[in-house]
Every structure is written in structure tokens, then in C-alpha cells.
Design goal:
The protein is globular and about 45 Å long. The protein is an alpha/beta fold. It is 38% helix and 22% strand. The protein has a single domain, classed as Rossmann fold. It has a 6-stranded parallel sheet with strand order 1-10-7-4-2-3, sandwiched between helices. Strands 8-5-6-9 form a 4-stranded mixed sheet, with helices on both faces.
Length: 202
Amino acid sequence: MEIKNLLNILENKGFKTYFTETTDEACRLLAGLIGKDDTVGAGGSATLDETGVGKFLKERGNKVYIRKLMPDVNPDEVMKNAVFADWFLTSTNALTENGEFVNTDGNCNRIASQLYGGKNTVFVLGVNKIVKDVPAALERIRTVAAKKNCLRFGYTSNPCVTGGDCRDCPRETNICHATSIISLPPRSKNVYVIIVDKELGY
């Protein structure tokens, strides 16, 4: 699917869309959208880590609620503050060609913040996250995102890691507690979408 068509679909649904060639361009775009006095939250995201936007905004002077950038603060406190920050930055596990954002979460702070909380949400994703439809999105989560996230968290005995298939995990290491599908921007939010012409995150 051509990116232009996907952007048009998202725009018609009410999302505010952007397409950038590089992560640096995406970073500059975010810096222009986010005020210097605004608070910023984010969930765990390999994509955002790769852009470096959290560190950039923190160094600029924004109050940034990102666990990795606040190692001395209780993680629960960081996640709660992130929900109601002026801006919540996130990626997505998958974006369908029909403009649906599909995400599976463990703590569920990420999908909670995508759905409710602060006034502005920004999805940042690489073209590798674009899939045909919801079944393809769920398959991508099971076979790509879940496995790589389990490896990131050190949950190396989960079935998606050891056997490549998705089966019941032990509750203690299960990272797939809830799944959300966002078809339209939540009424209480402005939702921005930045698609970067790169493979980012997982």
C-alpha cells in the first residue's frame, strides 16, 4: 500500500498525519509540536529509543516521564504521571492499511495512555509496522513484537522465544495481558501520527 493512501485514510478519520524520511526529521517535527513548557510521557518503546526524542526533550527542559530516563523514581509513579502528561509519545505494534492501531500490553499503561489521559497523543512508527488488516496485526504481535520484547525483558523461556509459537505463558512472564484496537481518535484527544520511512522498533 502506498503511504500516501494510508495517510489520507488516517486524515479522513481525524488523525493529524506526517511522513518523514529520517528519525532526525521526526525528532525535529516533535520538537516543533511540543511546547518547551509541556510535560511529556511515554511508555516503553524501542522505536522512541531509536529516535532519541525523549532524551532530546529532557535536555531541552521539558518534564519527561519516561522510566528509562528516571531510573531513581518509582516506575509506578512515572507511569501514572505519563498518562496525564500534556503529550504522550508512543509507537504501535501494528498499523493496518485501514488505519487501525493494534497494540498488546503487559502493564497496560501504554494502551491506557493511548486511549485516555492527556490532551495529545503521538504515534511514531516505522514502515515495518504497517500490515494489511487486524488479523495480520495480531499475527505480527504474536510472531514479531512479543518475541523481541520477551528477549528485551529477559523472558527467554516463554514459548514465543523457545518455539516460535504463541501459547500460554507463565503469568509472571506473560507480556500479553490486554489488546486494544484504535479505529478513530478518542474524542478527548488530539492524535498525531508520524510515519518514518525506516524500519524502527518491533
